[in-house]
């Protein structure tokens, strides 16, 4: 690590701490040449392999931008989009992979988006799951209905056991 003051090629770490979000490390460094102190923040890189083969760094903003299009006209706030993007990044980082296909990121968005807004979920899924026909939409809607039925049955069972 080059010193930002004198450009000396080395520095000594005098303190390391994990950041609040746990995704980066803050290091306090000192230059042995000039004695200047400075801070660095280190994060594990996460790269996306685009369909064209180009590799670029993962961006929460790009996740938010893509989901924002699916959420147009829906009651979804910017704060909701930021939380969704953070959730997606955390789930992707938990895989341990340093490079992912763009399609895998799109698929990782589906579960939290479904919990946020089902209409936006259907819009987004139609692109990332390559819906080709009305039957694809119908089966996705039917799956949503089945899941709602299971959730309602589970809630009824919990209410009955609480009353007993």
Automatic annotation (TrEMBL):
Keywords: ATP-binding, DNA-binding, Metal-binding, Nucleotide-binding, Repressor, Transcription, Transcription regulation, Zinc, Zinc-finger. One of its GO terms (biological process) is negative regulation of DNA-templated transcription. Its cofactor is Zn(2+). InterPro entries: ATP-cone_dom, NrdR-like_N, RNR_NrdR-like. Binds 1 zinc ion. It comes from the Bacteria. One of its GO terms (molecular function) is DNA binding. A zinc finger (unnamed) spans 3-34. Residues 46-136 form the ATP-cone domain. Pfam families: ATP-cone (PF03477), Zn_ribbon_NrdR (PF22811). Negatively regulates transcription of bacterial ribonucleotide reductase nrd genes and operons by binding to NrdR-boxes. PANTHER family: TRANSCRIPTIONAL REPRESSOR NRDR. Belongs to the NrdR family. This is Transcriptional repressor NrdR. It comes from Microbacterium kyungheense. The lineage of its organism: Bacteria, Bacillati, Actinomycetota, Actinomycetes, Micrococcales. The gene is nrdR.
């Amino acid at each position: 690590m080059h010193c930002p003051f004198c450009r000396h090629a080395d520095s000594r770490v005098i303190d390391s701490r994990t950041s609040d979000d746990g995704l980066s490390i803050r290091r306090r460094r000192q230059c042995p040449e000039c004695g200047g102190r400075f801070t660095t923040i280190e994060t594990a890189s996460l790269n996306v392999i685009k369909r064209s083969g180009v590799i670029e760094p993962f961006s929460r903003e790009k996740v938010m931008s893509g989901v924002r299009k699916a959420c147009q006209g829906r009651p979804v706030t910017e704060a909701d989009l930021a939380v969704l993007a953070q959730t997606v990044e955390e789930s992707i980082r938990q895989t341990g992979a340093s490079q992912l296909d763009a399609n895998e990121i799109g698929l990782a968005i589906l579960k939290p988006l479904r919990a946020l807004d089902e209409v936006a979920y259907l819009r987004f899924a139609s692109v990332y799951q390559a819906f080709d026909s009305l039957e694809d939409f119908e089966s996705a809607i039917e799956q949503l209905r089945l899941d709602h039925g299971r959730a309602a049955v589970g809630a009824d069972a919990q209410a009955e056991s609480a009353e007993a």
